[in-house]
Write a structure and sequence with these properties.
alpha/beta; Rossmann fold; pyruvate-formate lyase- activating enzyme; OB fold (Dihydrolipoamide Acetyltransferase, E2P); 6-stranded parallel beta sheet; 14 helices
């Protein structure tokens, strides 16, 4: 039995009191008519969901929001530690705030998120960016108001990380970024410890939210008009294992699916080792569950999968895919791939290419291996040059582009139900998305944004479809 403690109470009265105190302070410190906050989020959808909670607490602390840091009284970057490129972007963008802080000393600059849970990163921020006044990690979100208050009233910088108390906090206010697409976290943390991945070290161990709380939140989102709801977790297939009365993810998503309304349910991320036939059957039989399965395989080589500590092999993965294709009519399959994992040879890489050709994915998220300090893979021998890995990467993209073009061409002439999501700036065309997560561009009025429509597919490109309204 897990030692996880689930705290499902409202946000503590103490934190609510801090929000009121912050509002009073900011009435004095604000530069304009009202206190403004600027939030920039890097990385995954879980970070986006965390930022929505931070915005919820800031809104209750008297803040409004701005899209430009120059106007802000409070600037926060919510950071990602998964790849080196994301970290470099954070350092560059934080450095650019130095002159703004010099011009307006009362501005408070803060950093949070996964990067801040790494000691070497926090130390670098402390030593190299003295104008950053508040730094906190992923485990401190529930008492952000207290940390912000301390930063505002004390002259000392506030740094907090590594406070994983194995609890899960509920009742934190949320200010969602969208009105028809939304994120619904169902669990936090990860127990898998893939050798390349920093997530278990910065997000902690798995903690599942109570099923009834998730169902209530889903019901509220649907009643509020959300059309596309994505269930979030580092490994949603492990949902429920830490609960006092375990519940499978398939059971959870099936219960959400019974809620009346016009909406789609999606989920990410799904680990192949835990992707059950029960879950695939739930997708196949669901009324609202998207016919899209994102199942990261990372490598087609059993040798590399073992080195990655993925706990499945090529055969197991392909059996799962075969069952999904058999049961889910028109299933759209997507995946993640790491190119150039330490010790990978070109022969290993060719096994990845052959798996791609066999499955024929709709699309892929592909990355060249990025070593993460503190992970086992970062200490492994890595003799292949960056130049050679880039060649492999280009070869992989060429193969997938050929497959995607073939799959998209086969959809020409078909009628698809899509959700209209926005407008392309350059062409003023509408952007839409199918249940299978394929983008469709079409002519139409912006009034259609946020609605489901039927679209006839008229043209295909490598990754994107063109269509026209049929009504």
């Amino acid at each position: 039995m897990s030692d996880t403690v689930i705290v499902a109470d409202k946000l503590s009265e103490k934190q609510l009191e801090y929000m009121q105190l912050i509002a009073e302070i900011m009435e004095i410190r604000k530069r304009g008519e009202k206190p403004l906050a600027f939030i920039r989020t890097y990385g995954c959808q879980q970070n986006v969901a965390d930022s929505e909670k931070i915005k919820g607490m800031l809104a209750k602390s008297g803040f409004s929001f701005t899209d430009t840091p120059d106007d802000a009284d409070f600037i926060l970057f919510n950071t990602c530690a998964v790849r080196e490129h994301a970290e470099d972007r954070v350092f560059g963008n934080v450095g650019a705030l130095k002159n703004l802080k010099r011009k307006h000393p009362q501005i408070l600059i803060a950093l949070c998120g996964c990067m801040m849970e790494q000691e070497h990163i926090a130390n670098r921020i402390y030593n190299s960016f003295p104008f950053v006044g508040l730094v906190f990690g992923t485990h401190s979100l529930h008492h952000f108001p207290e940390l912000l208050y301390s930063s505002l009233v004390n002259s000392k910088r506030v740094f907090e990380r590594g406070n994983d108390d194995k609890k899960l906090y509920e009742g934190i206010p949320v200010k969602r970024d969208g009105t028809f697409k939304g994120w619904l976290p169902i669990m936090y943390g990860c127990n898998n410890f893939c050798t390349y991945c920093i997530v278990p070290y910065v997000r902690g161990r798995e903690r599942s939210r109570e099923k009834d709380i998730i169902l209530s939140e889903a019901r509220e989102m649907i009643q509020s008009g959300y059309k596309d709801i994505t269930l979030l977790g580092q490994n949603v297939n492990s949902y429920g294992k830490t609960l006092p009365e375990p519940v499978s993810f398939a059971k959870l998503i099936s219960e959400i699916d019974t809620i009346d309304g016009d909406y789609w349910l999606r989920f990410m991320t799904s680990h192949p080792k835990d992707c059950s036939k029960e879950l695939i059957d739930a997708i196949a039989n669901g009324r609202h569950i998207s016919k899209h399965l994102h199942l990261p395989f990372q490598s087609g080589s059993d040798r590399i999968l073992k080195a990655m500590n993925r706990h499945y092999d090529r055969k197991k993965y392909l059996e799962t895919i075969a069952y999904a294709k058999e049961k889910i009519d028109g299933v759209s399959l997507t995946s993640d791939i790491i190119v150039g994992f330490p010790g990978e040879t070109y022969e290993d890489f060719k096994e990845t290419l052959s798996l791609i050709r066999e499955v024929e994915f709709t699309s892929l998220f592909t990355f060249i291996y990025s070593p993460r300090v503190g992970t086992p893979a970062a200490k492994m021998d890595d003799p292949i040059s960056a130049e050679e890995k880039s060649k492999w990467f280009r070869e992989l993209l060429d193969v997938q582009e050929e497959i995607a073009a073939k799959r998209c061409s086969a959809m020409v002439g078909a009628t698809e139900r899509v959700l209209i999501e926005g407008v392309k700036e350059k062409t003023n065309e509408l952007n839409a998305r199918t249940s299978g997560n394929i983008i469709v561009e079409l002519e139409g009025s912006p009034d259609l944004i946020g609605t489901f429509r039927n679209v006839k597919i008229t043209k295909a490109r490598n990754w994107i479809l063109k269509g026209e309204l049929t009504e």
